[in-house]
Automatic annotation (TrEMBL):
<dbReference type="InterPro" id="IPR036259">
    <property type="entry name" value="MFS_trans_sf"/>
</dbReference>
<dbReference type="InterPro" id="IPR020846">
    <property type="entry name" value="MFS_dom"/>
</dbReference>
<dbReference type="InterPro" id="IPR050171">
    <property type="entry name" value="MFS_Transporters"/>
</dbReference>
<feature type="transmembrane region" description="Helical">
    <location>
        <begin position="90"/>
        <end position="108"/>
    </location>
</feature>
<dbReference type="GO" id="GO:0022857">
    <property type="term" value="F:transmembrane transporter activity"/>
</dbReference>
<dbReference type="Pfam" id="PF07690">
    <property type="entry name" value="MFS_1"/>
</dbReference>
<protein>
    <submittedName>
        <fullName>MFS transporter</fullName>
    </submittedName>
</protein>
<feature type="transmembrane region" description="Helical">
    <location>
        <begin position="322"/>
        <end position="345"/>
    </location>
</feature>
<keyword id="KW-1003">Cell membrane</keyword>
<dbReference type="GO" id="GO:0005886">
    <property type="term" value="C:plasma membrane"/>
</dbReference>
<feature type="domain" description="Major facilitator superfamily (MFS) profile">
    <location>
        <begin position="1"/>
        <end position="205"/>
    </location>
</feature>
<feature type="transmembrane region" description="Helical">
    <location>
        <begin position="23"/>
        <end position="53"/>
    </location>
</feature>
<feature type="transmembrane region" description="Helical">
    <location>
        <begin position="393"/>
        <end position="413"/>
    </location>
</feature>
<feature type="transmembrane region" description="Helical">
    <location>
        <begin position="59"/>
        <end position="78"/>
    </location>
</feature>
<feature type="transmembrane region" description="Helical">
    <location>
        <begin position="179"/>
        <end position="198"/>
    </location>
</feature>
<feature type="transmembrane region" description="Helical">
    <location>
        <begin position="120"/>
        <end position="142"/>
    </location>
</feature>
<dbReference type="InterPro" id="IPR011701">
    <property type="entry name" value="MFS"/>
</dbReference>
Length: 430
């Protein structure tokens, strides 16, 4: 007799079932609203400070450098505080602070005001990310955590895309009043997402139910500081290095395409759209099962290979003719998007499963801090490799991604082996 595979429920039913969970529903609605606001400000703030306020380029760069530096500290601090005070109230405070800070850009007329606004926004956003991850760690277990992160990342891409479209109104009108009005809309939207967060249940303030007395032993001792967990620090360091790939999209590719290839500038828009569409379509399905340590390590290794190939394709476009350059850049975009999706899926699973549930916020803070450090260092790393040395630099950058992915995989597989030996001591060898 042939075994029949149960048919998967329709897409709308799967979405409805996912959002039936109250924590994920509240976080999803809040994320959609806030990222629409974030998409507006991401598109407009640099141009507003340059064109409307009249700050020179070096001062605008200083504003965002200071903000990135502040984010490093508050990424950890947000997660650390989420273990000690109400994570719900802390998250609400973070989004309100961020929204007000983003809206305050409309009042900026001088450099110090721009720095103050960006510092406040960076504090709110960096702490927000760590606290939200701590809430997911508190509210879910296993696959539920990874699925929640994947859903929220998909919604983030949708929200930022919508926000960028709204920002185009200000760009089309080009007046100071239009810039200020749309920026005010963006900041207000970000702050108003706090209303959705009011619906978070009280259980998000503590460890997930049943985790403390789970049958499986916890990866680390109860209440352990992440700064004393060498395995988690090593994983976070490797994951942070791989996170430099986000700046490849935002910084490296635009500069490389315009200055070092013969590809038309409008191709950049197609590449960004392709990345967004692939993430929205594939992040949730490709994240399934990555709560398992070995699977998380495997998908991370695959992402390293894909990212190395993407860098080779990007670099090869530098000396190619028009048709070949376009093909290589588009191929690199697809490979890069798949690497991004898989690397995030693997890292999310490991960031939760390697952490001590009793210190979930602090562990998520360390993980988020690594990403903030990557964002701070990424422009320099990309400049001294790919942008300065062409194809050789791109190949070096690809090798860096491959090594970091292999490092994450090594941590994952070793952790899985240790967990298996604790479950079955008879299976371990002297």
């Amino acid at each position: 007799m042939t075994r029949t595979t149960p048919a998967r429920p329709p897409l709308l039913e799967r979405i409805r079932a996912t959002l039936a969970e109250p924590v994920l529903r509240a976080l999803t609605v809040a994320t959609l609203i806030s990222t629409v606001g974030r998409g507006i400000t991401l598109t407009l703030v640099v141009l507003y400070l340059t064109i409307i306020v009249g700050l020179p380029a070096d001062q605008v760069a200083l504003v965002f450098t200071v903000g990135a530096a502040v984010s490093v500290l508050f990424s950890y601090l947000g997660g650390h505080l989420a273990d000690r005070v109400s994570a719900r109230r802390l998250l609400i405070g973070c989004v309100v602070l961020t929204g007000l800070a983003l809206a305050s850009f409309v009042l900026v007329t001088e450099l110090w005001q721009a720095i103050l606004a960006e510092v406040a926004a960076s504090i709110g956003m960096s702490a927000n990310g760590a606290v939200r991850a701590a809430i997911i760690a508190h509210a879910f277990v296993g696959q539920g955590r990874v699925t929640s992160r994947a859903v929220l990342r998909t919604v983030t891409n949708i929200g930022i895309t919508i926000g960028s479209g709204v920002a185009a109104i200000a760009l089309a009108l080009g007046t100071p009043e239009a810039y200020r009005a749309i920026l005010l809309v963006g900041g207000t939207a970000y702050a108003l997402c706090a209303l959705a967060l009011l619906r978070l249940p009280a259980r998000v303030d503590g460890p997930a139910e049943g985790e403390a007395d789970a049958a499986e032993p916890a990866p680390v001792g109860a209440g352990r500081s992440p700064w004393r967990d060498r395995r988690y620090l090593l994983f976070s360091a490797f994951a942070a290095v791989f996170a430099i790939q986000f700046a490849v999209t935002n910084v490296g590719i635009p500069l490389w395409l315009v200055h070092d290839t013969v590809a038309p500038e409008w191709l950049l828009s197609i590449m960004l759209i392709a990345n967004t569409v692939l993430v929205i379509a594939l992040q949730v399905p490709l994240s399934r099962g990555t709560h398992d340590l070995r699977r998380a390590g495997t998908v991370t290794a695959v992402s390293g290979v894909l990212m190395a190939l993407a860098c080779a394709a990007y670099g090869g476009a530098g000396g190619a003719g028009l048709a070949l350059a376009v093909v290589l850049l588009l191929a690199g975009t697809v490979l890069h998007a798949l690497a991004e999706i898989l690397s995030q899926a693997g890292a999310w699973g490991l960031s939760f499963e390697l952490a001590d549930p009793a210190s979930a916020g602090a562990y998520q803070g360390v993980y988020a801090m690594g990403f903030s450090l990557a964002g701070l260092a990424a422009p320099l790393v990309i400049a001294v490799t790919a942008l300065e040395h062409g194809l050789a630099g791109w190949l070096l950058l690809g090798a860096m991604f491959l090594v970091s992915a292999v490092g994450v995989t090594g941590v994952a597989y070793r952790s899985a082996a240790q967990l298996s030996s604790r479950r079955d001591p008879a299976a371990s060898t002297p």
